[in-house]
Design brief:
mainly alpha
Length: 55
């Protein structure tokens, strides 16, 4: 196994362990947080456009 593949596998393992720790502690996954953040950005952009149209 080449070194880069080995490092990639270690990184994936660390990411999975972190995800499992978040789930077991009752915290939402980072994916859910990202989804919420993207929804908030979309809402803010829509409000900004609506405000610009109203001027």
């Amino acid at each position: 196994m080449d070194p880069q593949t080995f490092l990639d596998l270690i990184f994936e393992s660390i990411q999975e362990s972190a995800r499992q720790a978040r789930l077991s502690s009752g915290r939402p996954s980072s994916q859910a947080t990202l989804k919420e953040a993207l929804q908030q950005v979309a809402m803010l952009e829509a409000a900004k456009q609506a405000q610009a149209v109203g001027k």
